[in-house]
Amino acid sequence: ACSSRFVLSQMHPMWQEPLEVPGGERQSPIDISIRKSVFDPNLKPLVTRYDPRTCQQIWNNGYSFLVEYDDRTDKSTLHGGPLEDQFRLCQFHFHWGENNNWGSEHTVDRHLYPAELHLVHWNSDKYSLFEEAVMEDNGLAVIGVFMKVGKRHEGLQKLVDALPAVRHKDSVVEFTKFDPSCLLPQNTNEYWTYAGSLTTPPLTEAVTWIIMKQPIEVSHDQLAVFRSLLFTSAEEEVQKSMVNNFRVQQSLKDRTVRSSFN
Ligand SMILES: CC#CCNS(=O)(=O)c1cc(S(N)(=O)=O)ccc1C(=O)O
Ligand SMILES: [Zn+2]
User: Fold this and answer.
1) Which of 1, 28, 211, 231 has its CA 20 to 30 A from that of 63?
2) Is 222 in the pocket of ligand 1 (CB under 6 A)?
3) Are 241 and 176 in contact (CB under 8 A)?
C-alpha cells in the first residue's frame, strides 16, 4: 500500500509547516471560488472501478486513519474526468474538526464542512510504485468528498465500528471487503479539478485534485467516533484526541480551478 512512512512532528494538531515547500506554486488545500472556476466542456465523467477484495487494513498513523488497499495490481482504479492515465487506489482517509463547524481542508466560497474524505490514487500507467509517483507532477489523483451532518451513512458505519480497534497511533486492524464507492455521492459528474499537492509531508506537488460538488451525509454520532481517535500512542502518558487534522489553506497563485458543470 501507499501510506507514507513520513513521521509528522509531534506538534499537535498541525505539524510545524515547513517555511519553504518544493516549488510552492501549487500547494493544497485551497478555497474553491465558484465564480472564479472555469467550466471545461472537455472534462469527462469520472470512472471508478473498485474491487472490495483489495481492501486490507485500517492504520492510525498519528495524523489520520488510513484504509489501505492492495495496489500491486490494477484491480481498484480511477480514470476519466481530467485524467489522461489510469490511476490505482492505494488508500483513503479523512480530515475533521473538533466540532461540526469546521474540519474540511478545501472550502467552497469559504464554506467549511465538518469533514472531508480523500481517496488517494497513483498513476500506474506511468509509474510502477506509489513512492515513485508521489514525486512526479502527474503522479497522484485524489478524489475529495465533503461530508455534512445529516442522516446516518450506512456504508460508513462498518468503518466507524472498526475505529475503536485503532484508537492509538501506530495501531493497525485487518479490514476487508469494503467498497469505497459507497462513500461517493450519487452524482460524481459534477466536480471541480485543479493542480495541487499533498496536504501532509512531503507536500509534493504531484496531485490532480478532483473535488466532488455534492457532499455525502453522515450522522453527528458517526463523526463523534472519528474524534474518539487519538494522535498519541498507547505508551504516551498524555493522550491527545485526533481532531483538527487539516492543513491551513494555501494561495491559489497562478492556477485556475476548472468545473465539469456549468
Ligand atoms: C511518501 C508519501 C506520502 C503521502 N502519503 S499519502 O499520499 O497516502 C497521504 C496523502 C494525504 S492527502 N491529504 O494529501 O491526500 C494525506 C496523508 C497521506 C499519508 O500517507 O498519510
Ligand atoms: Zn487528505
Assistant:
1) 211
2) no
3) no
Task: Please say if the pLDDT value at position 10 is more than 60.
Answer: no
CA of 6 from ligand 1 middle (Å) equals 9
Atom of ligand 1 nearest to the CA of 140: 7
Q: Does 205 score more than 50 pLDDT?
A: yes
Ligand 1 and 213: CB distance under 6 A = no
Strand partners, 208: 141, 195
| 210 pocket-lining for ligand 1 (C-beta < 6 Å) | no
Please check the confidence at residue 63 and state whether its pLDDT lies above 60. Answer: yes
Residues 6+ away with beta carbon under 8 Å from 222 = 152, 153, 156, 157, 160
The b/e string for 48-63 (b: 16+ C-beta within 10 A; e otherwise) is: bebbeebbbbbbbbbb
Q: What whole-number distance in Å separates Cα of residue 106 and Cα of residue 32?
A: 7
Q: Is 247 in the pocket of ligand 1 (CB under 6 A)?
A: no
pTM, 2 dp:
0.95
What is the enclosing helix (H) or strand (E) of 220?
helix 220-226
Measured between alpha carbons, how far is 208 from 69 in angstroms, rounded to an integer?
Answer: 20
Q: Say if residues 232 and 240 touch (Cβ distance below 8 Å).
A: yes
| 181-188 average pLDDT score | 98
